[in-house]
Amino acid sequence: MECHDELTSTSDYCKERLRAGEASGLAVLARRQSKGRGSRGRQWLDSGQSLALSVLLDAVVTEQDTLGGWPFAASLAFYDGLVDSVPAARVRLGIKWPNDILLDGRKLGGILIEREGQRLVIGMGANLEVAPDEALTGQGTACLAQCGPVGDVETVAHAVLARLAQWCDIWGREGFESLRLAWLERAHPPGTPLVVRGASTYEEGRFAGLTADGRLLLDTVAGTKVIATGDILLAEGRG
Question: Which residues contact 22 (CB under 8 A, 6 or more apart)?
Answer without folding.
Answer: 14, 56
